[in-house]
Amino acid sequence: MASEDVMIKIESVNKSFGNIKALDNLNLDIYRGELLGIIGPNGAGKTTTIRLTCCVLKPDSGDIVVDGSSIHDDPITIKSKIGYLPEEPNLYERFKARDLLRYFAELYGVPKNQIEPRIEELLELVGMTHRSEDRINTFSKGLRQRISVARALIHDPEIIIFDEPTMGLDPATAASIRNFIRQLKGKKTIILCTHYMEEADLLCDRVAILNKGRVGDVGTPDYLKSKIHGDVILTVKTDSKREPTTIKDQITQFESVGTVKFADGIFSITLKHRNEIAAIVDVFGSHVVSVNTQEPTLNDVFIHSVK
Ligand SMILES: Nc1ncnc2c1ncn2[C@@H]1O[C@H](COP(=O)(O)OP(=O)(O)O)[C@@H](O)[C@H]1O
Ligand SMILES: [Mg+2]
């Protein structure tokens, strides 16, 4: 991609806390308009990366350039362009939901005539219109997270950063938070830090794997999955209980085939690509009961990558 398409450029960033090296010469480009996932185990450096990008922390060395501004020169401009949902949002407990949003709208300099419509729009987006006159201290964790999402979006930022947005939420609330993110996709530049691989796989255009303060692989979920051994797992259920040696011998002849296993009438075959699937299934003739192919998951990639 051309350099003008890079919205955030993280260049040779180092950050230590005492003798803990949280970020170790980190380099990463985030393109304008993409949804980039940063995945990695606890302690990988995800939150530190985000806090540096949002100018909450300073690096020991290196630079982060956000839409042309360096964190060293222009943190105020950078902050105005980013909406940040922290890992543990700190809300003002005694505020009513609506007043909290109004407070942040004023803080971020949203033009006066736009504040109320913006609040309505966001309350609607996060499904909180009916709770807008209630105080934060009456909210469950899920409702707090919804209002925190609205708060992060109040100044209509170009860049939105979600740090573990669904951690600790019930499945239904987590799904609705993912849905808000999906609605923003394509309209904003988004970073999503998560240790849930399925979440990254579902939502992200590209994923960067972070481990011990360094970026390993970066690419689309499909690209990352295609890089690991056994691109496809083909399972064929047969009605045949007989010794499958002849079938097995024939299947192993195919160029795409890795390993072939047989148990309880089911063949499990790892394939390097999908081009020969039809021909392989033909070998079974009329003994086929069902056929299934399975992709490796991002979790497989992750385990492979951080080993
Ligand atoms: N304020 C801090 N003080 C001391 N150590 C910290 C601080 N913030 C982060 N760390 C350490 O830096 C490393 C990276 O942490 P973090 O960026 O929070 O990782 P992640 O978000 O991927 O779980 C961890 O070892 C963590 O303990
Ligand atoms: Mg974190």
* CATH homology superfamily name of the largest domain: P-loop containing nucleotide triphosphate hydrolases
Average pLDDT figure: 90
Tell me the domain tally: 2
Oligomer: single chain
Provide a quick synopsis of the model:
The chain has 307 residues and is α/β, with parallel strands linked by helices.
Which labels suit this protein?
307 residues; alpha/beta; Rossmann fold; Alpha-Beta Plaits; 2 domains; 4-stranded antiparallel sheet; 34% helix; binds adenosine-5'-diphosphate; binds magnesium ion
Draw up the topology in text.
Elements: E1 6-17, E2 20-31, E3 35-39, H1 46-53, E4 61-66, E5 69-70, H2 75-81, E6 82-85, H3 97-107, H4 112-125, H5 141-153, E7 159-163, H6 171-184, E8 189-194, H7 197-203, E9 206-211, E10 214-219, H8 221-227, E11 232-238, H9 245-252, E12 257-263, E13 266-271, H10 277-283, E14 288-294, H11 298-306
Helix pairs in contact: 3-4, 4-5
Protein name: Fe(3+)-transporting ATPase
EC number: 3.6.3.30
Keywords: ATP-binding, Hydrolase, Nucleotide-binding, Transport
Structure description:
- Belongs to the ABC transporter superfamily.
- Its EC number is 3.6.3.30.
- It is an enzyme of class 3 (hydrolase).
- The protein has 307 residues and is α/β, with parallel strands linked by helices.
- It has 2 domains: 3-219, Rossmann fold (3-Layer(aba) Sandwich), CATH 3.40.50.300; 227-296, 2-Layer Sandwich (Alpha-Beta Plaits).
- It contains 11 helices and 14 strands.
- The chain has helices at 46-53, 75-81, 97-107, 112-125, 141-153, 171-184, 197-203, 221-227, 245-252, 277-283, 298-306, and strands at residues 6-17, 20-31, 35-39, 61-66, 69-70, 82-85, 159-163, 189-194, 206-211, 214-219, 232-238, 257-263, 266-271, 288-294.
- The strands form 3 sheets. Strands 6-7-8-3-9-10 form a 6-stranded mixed β-sheet, sandwiched between helices.
- The chain is elongated, with a radius of gyration of 24 Å.
